[in-house]
User: What shape does this take?
Amino acid sequence: MLDPIAPTHIDTTKASIARVYDAALNGKDNYEIDREVVKRLAQIAPEIGRFTWDHRNFLIRVTRFIATQAGITQFLDCGSGLPTAENTHQVAQRIQPDARVVYVDNDPVVLAHGRALLVENDHTFFSAADIFEPRQILNDEVVRKHLDFSAPIALFQLGTLHHYNGERNPASIMAEYIDALPSGSYVAISHFLDPEDEHTALAQRLQQIFVNSPLGSGWFRPRGEIMAMFAGLELVEPGLTRCVDWWPDGPRLKPLEPAQHCIVGAVGRKP
Amino acid sequence: MPNADAEQSVDVRPPHIDTTKASIARVYDAVLNGKDNYEIDREVVRQLRKVAPEMSLMAWDNRNFLIRVTRFIASQTGITQFLDCGSGLPTAENTHQVAQRLQPDARVVYVDNDPVVLTHGRALLVENDQTHFSAADIFKPSEIINDDVVRKHLDFSEPIALFQIGTLPFHAGERSPQSIMAEYIDALPSGSYVAISHFIDPETSELSDFARRLEQAFQHSPMGRGVFRTRSEIEGMLAGLELLDPGLVLCADWWPDGPRIKPLDTVQNCIVGAVARKP
Assistant: This one.
């Protein structure tokens, strides 16, 4: 339901990152323009759904790891997207009932519809700040009110930084976030990868479709550039890997599809 | 709704609960810091903790193994039928919740004949029409396989996931646990998965003595049993199946949720699990 007090304007002629993800995950909160992007991606990578689920399942496993093992109860999830079967707060609060989660997203559909679904209890909050402006986030009233920056925080930038189209280097955006986090904090990033191997051609073709689509972004970066986003952190094992290979839920029964080589993630700890 | 309760009590004969006897389900519950246990169960836990102060880590390893195995089976194998032998008392996450989150149409039949599980646990576990309960004896495969509830809700012509998680150490009968499992495995269709976890005697100089002392503590407690078996004895329970990677390992090491941050306690070296597939 739209917020009756301040209805957000939704331009259905423009694709949105959150809605394109939703379409790729087989959700129903997307428009024709979003589905068109997914159709074009599926023409060269029919496994685009698995590619997107790898991403989402990485988020779920990372949240589980942090909630069970790191003892952290504060989560700052930048770019929540539209809700799916399992969202950060559900996973974290199942393990740590008092975990506090602040979602940040400025997509109008997320703000209207997604927020209503995500903020279902008084430990879960929402901010409409810009996730690519660390200072804005760090000084945001919702963030400051519900997260204590003197205790470790888990910061997520999952599937977000490859959609940044601004002037800054994404590594410098992350450096500003990391600098503000207290010692013992964890940072998780997932990102489209140019694997610099036989799958490079696919990565480049996918990038072309993303960038030339109404989204205008979706950069497949080489490993070195993604590693630079973790500067100052100690990566937990096994380091930066394909999302599907980060502590999977049991042995892999199906072979990897080519696009699954082009999405990686890692978790780092601030010493 | 008191009226509804009154109506129900006409049909349901409350099982007799002997609070002077410890029960596996309630001892597990006590170790996991639950509240559905009696003094006699807590006495067992106190005796076990004299040998293994971190006993609860072992119980959680067992429980978390169940959760991860269920997640794997529900997400990767396409199986939607689960036969969970020895459900125990419900905890934060139970088989049907984990399975149905991934496969909304998954059917789960829990089997347990503990009186407290049958009254209180069943009421909590059977929360939707794809989750069912049988009071048969999990150490009598022919009873389970021919059970009305099992037969009504599970289709034995399609692959089934069978769980015996933390149950077989407590079998007190004459029959070997290997032969019990062989009868189950024989009844399952090809493509089925079997998961077991079991107390192990790691057969190393530093751990074997510890495992045997903990076994003694079980046997001399009001629980009266709790057998620690060797690797080959436990592997013998999976005869005829193909073990999945990484085989029979510590429950804590079966596809864990991320890297281990804290070192393992001694007691965590004494519980193992495996998942296997019937060819």
